[in-house]
Amino acid sequence: MTFSTTPPRASVLNENEAGRLCDSAASAMIHGSNQLGSVPGIIRRIIEECAWKRRKVALHGIVELPSLRDLITLPPMKGWGEDPAKVEALLRDDIEVLAMWREEMTGEHGGDRRSEKAETKSDNITLETDRRGTSRSYTVSRLQKQRPDLFADVKAGKLSANAAAIKAGFRKVKPPLELAIRAFRKLNDRDRQEFERRKDGIPSKLDPGEVTKARFGPRELKDPRSRAYAIQTLYALKRYAENAKFSQELVAKELDEIDQYRHWEILGYSSREDMLRAESVAINREVA
Fold first, then answer.
1. Which among 18, 79, 83, 116 could disulfide-bond with 13, CB atoms 3.0 to 4.6 Å apart, if both were Cys?
2. Cis before residue 77, ω within 30 degrees of 0?
3. Predicted structure pTM score
4. Do the Cβ atoms of 161 and 95 come closer than 8 Å?
5. What pLDDT does residue 53 have?
6. Cα–Cα distance between 282 and 259 in angstroms, integer?
7. Strand (E) or helix (H) holding 269
8. Mean pLDDT of 4-12
9. 3-state SS, residue 33
């Protein structure tokens, strides 16, 4: 672990200049998309100049703050009244500024952000406001301190921050099975049905254009043994099966239609089950 020995910085800006600099960042965030691109550069200069220490605020006078966090979080007129996470999100594509941001936001809690104690707390992510060891700001800050070569690769766009952290040994690669299980648990019922369909490798045999055309017009005017009738029946079944407000009697009625005319054969499937699986239709087993 390395520790900074740089002495505390002093701003070269006067209080009027510091005030205007801080106001320009707040204004960019308030006015939105047209000015958000300027925020990283302004934040960089605010940090470099310690502009929060003493600045002049219009209609309020001189404001002195001990930390960048106070500038971000305190309500106007003393600060910006912003969520630090929101500001950090605007910095994620400028990794140098992101690393500066994290060092400033975590180091100030120890009083002397340059001290060994403050740096140790920062590197071990024990500060109450930043425990996220996998956060992007933590990752790039640690790379900058401990693996400047990989930090340079991230800055140059040769590696993602995550890939660099894995290469540096800061982060472990989770086994594919663990990732798959975690992802599957987050799926809703419909997505799980789609997963089951794709897992079994049964592709849909229906052309989207044909489906759109087939679903147009009254079904009762079509030949029950036609593809158009079969498609319309299948999609009626799908709608009834997916919506709890419809009774299971309607589901059973559409299944009877499919069975009577063997619609799976008309549509090119080897069985009713293959057709339903390929078209992501989940049927209550009691009805099926």
1. 18
2. yes
3. 0.49
4. yes
5. 95
6. 16
7. none
8. 52
9. coil
